[in-house]
Amino acid sequence: GSxxxxxxxxxxxxxxxxxxxxxxxxxxxxxxxxxxxxxxVSQKDYFDAYVYDTIWSLxxxxxxHLLSNQSIIGIFKxxxxxxxxxxxxxxxxxxxxxxxxxVLVEQxxxxxxxxxxxxxxxxxxxxxxxx
Length: 131
Fold this sequence. Notes:
The structure is a single chain. This protein has 131 residues and is an alpha+beta fold. Helices cover 39% and strands 17% of the residues. The protein is built from five helices and seven strands. Strands 1-2-6-7 form a four-stranded mixed beta sheet, with no helix packed on it. It has a three-stranded antiparallel beta sheet with strand order 3-4-5. Helix 3 (43-66) packs across helix 4 (72-82). The radius of gyration is 20 Å and the shape is elongated. 2% of the residues are buried. This is Receptor ligand binding region domain-containing protein.
């Protein structure tokens, strides 16, 4: 409804909205998805990639624990602050307990979608190195 902001994760392409079989008219689809925010992560690979990167982060933590006599909490904090590698979902870094990363978000705007285009929303990261 108009009182909600809908996020759609993992849509494959803009043209998918028009090519999938449905009982809805094109105008009904446009009205339903107008204003939605979307990311272009394939649904099939979305969670696989994050699980893969999490496992590598945990492996890094485990290796660091074996090489140190510190408590696991101290090691965990230290390792998270120093993790920096390229994973399946992009660059893996953590800051203040949260993952630093870049996610492309686009907004569906009906008047522009007729030309197979979306509006790119400005990128935000906790650091100023956003591309």
